[in-house]
Write a sequence for this structure.
């Protein structure tokens, strides 16, 4: 990835949907709008986000997931073997549609490939292929079919692998496989999640990333470094970089997707704050290891908040680059 | 044998019915309705939760914990000494709670569950069991920035929650359920747990049930049975080893067993036969008239339709079991 600058800037995947798309999705649920009309609005919103990312100066883009509701339900809808059971509360008044596995799971056809092609056709910058990992899909679904969680996870891993291979064939040089549920049962299930990731990334030549957020990251560290990916993207900002202490004890041997922006607060961070976060991180990472990113997907923010946060992120990364070049960037 | 619910119930109905609680919670956040108006919505949803349990045919119900954001902050927000921090995963579930932080001495300030219990009792033709998060679990899921040791923190919470149980005593509930799932993951803390239980139950007149879930009571069950609990609840779904534990350690004849056998966390509905077979196995160790048949945990992990189906299944199993023994 020689054309990327130092501290490449990227995002975790989702962006807020514009009001016209939210309205169209509501109509679609009530059967008041044709699927093709909804598609067209999703394409429009995707174009807008690609353009915004280019204007902001991000280095590795995403399609923004305008066509996805939930990161698990989207794949469950497209895969064989799933039904949607209903809404389940995750916290406060946040609910998510929880799928249920009712038969053998598998891929009917490519899922995200057309969207990837479309987004990539709009920009000269690389666009990431974005997938949800098998362990997370299994963990965030009810299982009425497979006798064990292992069987379900392994079968899903094969389906997601096929999708990753198709993304690569379509030209994706970056493929991200999100596993936010990976530390749900850190002792019992980590090896299962790792084996599943081995299946997903097997034989790929693309640069692979996994995103993990919330939960007890220290519990799966350093074994997390055994995940067969090039980069692990983590939320550092929302716990004020407390994870750095953990990485100090055992060196972080992968590239890091450094979460420097809190995805769940309304407050727009300043470029200085981002710069400060990067400085602090260089106490444990080499500059070449660091990709700069928000903690998580930004879909729960307003467009203004998301754009403001990303503007500060890009500017903070630019200043970090400058300081490093002029020799004034000192790890804190 | 009694059929009973043991905790939470989904706050919103299945689509396309409108999720009134969810809409009201959003409006409350935006300041468009008052606390009082929100409470009236909670009242209605609580009545729905109770009605579902009663119509399913349960012998004992809960209020569905509709007013609980989670099992920790419901208590910590009403006690002194706590601030409330960011989101944490609740055990190995995909449910998150806001983490209480002990910033100073924690103390009971006012009755927490009593008013909700009164409301539920007034709207239920069946006996209601109030639920209290136990001191050990509350401490484990909180952050301690004040006490010199975890043990001191647990004991301070035990004394505070003892006052809550005394406040409930005045209402003479048929049973108070104390939830202590965290002890299953920290068996080494049994001596501390014993001490905390003594403080928690001191002078309490109501029968108290100790409920555990998300694991098995290996190395703990005999000790639980010696503590002055009226009943002990075990999860036989997430803790299948509870079978061996129960068969090896036995169960005292003067205690009730909370038999958590329907999977509260999966939509797959157990067949009546499957549960009857489990009851048959159980009956070799525990007399069935001392069994409280229930789900393995609270039912808010499920969409409402699936939760209701589990409740109905409990009552069906009981009917079938009575026919078998008749």
């Amino acid at each position: 990835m020689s054309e990327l600058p130092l501290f490449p800037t990227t995002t975790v995947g989702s962006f807020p949907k514009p009001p016209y798309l939210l309205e169209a999705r509501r109509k679609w649920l009530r059967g008041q709008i044709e699927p093709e009309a909804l598609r067209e609005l999703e394409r429009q919103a995707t174009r807008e986000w690609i353009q915004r990312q280019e204007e902001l100066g991000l280095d590795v883009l995403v399609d923004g997931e305008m066509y996805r509701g939930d990161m698990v339900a989207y794949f469950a809808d497209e895969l064989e073997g799933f039904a949607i059971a209903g809404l389940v509360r995750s916290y406060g008044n946040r609910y998510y549609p929880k799928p249920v596995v009712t038969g053998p799971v598998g891929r009917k056809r490519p899922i995200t490939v057309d969207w990837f092609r479309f987004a990539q056709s709009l920009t000269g910058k690389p666009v990431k292929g974005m997938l949800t990992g098998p362990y997370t899909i299994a963990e965030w679904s009810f299982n009425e079919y497979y006798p064990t969680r292992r069987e379900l996870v392994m079968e899903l891993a094969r389906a997601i692998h096929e999708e990753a291979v198709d993304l690569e064939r379509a030209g994706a040089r970056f493929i991200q496989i999100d596993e936010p549920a990976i530390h749900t049962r850190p002792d019992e299930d980590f090896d299962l999640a790792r084996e599943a990731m081995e299946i997903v990334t097997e034989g790929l030549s693309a640069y692979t990333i996994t995103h993990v957020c919330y939960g007890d990251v220290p519990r799966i560290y350093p074994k997390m470094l055994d995940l067969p990916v090039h980069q692990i993207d983590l939320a550092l900002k929302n716990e004020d970089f407390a994870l750095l202490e953990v990485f100090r004890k055992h060196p972080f041997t992968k590239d890091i997707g450094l979460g420097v922006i809190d995805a769940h607060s309304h407050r727009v961070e300043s470029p200085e704050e981002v710069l400060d976060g990067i400085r602090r991180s260089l106490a444990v990472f080499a500059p070449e290891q660091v990709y700069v990113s928000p903690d998580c997907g930004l879909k729960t923010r307003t467009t203004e908040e998301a754009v403001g946060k990303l503007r500060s992120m890009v500017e903070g990364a630019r200043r970090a680059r400058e300081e490093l070049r002029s020799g004034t960037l000192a790890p804190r | 044998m009694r059929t009973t619910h043991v905790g939470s119930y989904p706050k919103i109905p299945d689509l396309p019915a409108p999720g009134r609680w969810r809409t009201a919670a959003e409006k409350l956040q935006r300041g468009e309705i008052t606390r009082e108006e929100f409470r009236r919505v909670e009242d209605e949803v609580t009545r729905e939760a109770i009605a579902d349990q009663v119509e399913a045919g349960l012998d004992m119900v809960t209020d569905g914990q509709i007013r609980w954001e989670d099992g920790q902050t419901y208590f910590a927000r009403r006690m002194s000494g706590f601030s409330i921090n960011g989101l944490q995963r609740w055990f190995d579930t995909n449910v998150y709670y806001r983490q209480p932080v002990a910033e100073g001495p924690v103390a009971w300030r006012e009755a927490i569950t009593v008013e909700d219990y009164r409301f539920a009792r007034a709207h239920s033709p069946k006996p209601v069991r109030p639920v209290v998060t136990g001191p050990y679990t509350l401490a484990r899921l909180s952050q301690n920035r004040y006490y010199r040791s975890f043990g001191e923190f647990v004991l301070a919470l035990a004394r505070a929650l003892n006052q809550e149980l005394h406040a409930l005593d005045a209402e003479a509930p048929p049973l108070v359920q104390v939830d202590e799932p965290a002890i299953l993951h920290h068996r080494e803390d049994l001596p501390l747990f014993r001490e905390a239980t003594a403080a928690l139950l001191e002078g309490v007149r109501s029968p108290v049930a100790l409920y555990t879930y998300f694991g098995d009571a290996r190395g703990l069950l005999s000790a639980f049975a010696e503590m002055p609990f009226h009943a002990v609840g075990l999860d036989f779904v997430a803790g299948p080893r509870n079978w061996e534990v129960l068969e090896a350690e036995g169960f005292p004849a003067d205690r009730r067993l909370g038999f958590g056998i329907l999977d509260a966390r999966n939509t797959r509905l157990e067949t009546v036969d499957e549960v009857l077979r489990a009851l048959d196995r159980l009956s070799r160790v525990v007399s069935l008239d001392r069994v409280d048949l229930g789900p393995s945990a609270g039912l808010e992990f499920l969409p409402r339709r699936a939760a209701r189906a589990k409740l109905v299944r409990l009552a069906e199993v009981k009917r079938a079991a009575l026919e078998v023994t008749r």
Summary: The mean pLDDT of chain A is 95. The longest strand of chain A covers residues 94-107. Residues 146 and 152 of chain A are 6 Å apart (CA to CA). The interface with chain B takes residues 85-93, 95, 98, 100, 139-140, 142-144, 181, 183-185, 214-216, 238-239 of chain A (CB under 8 Å).
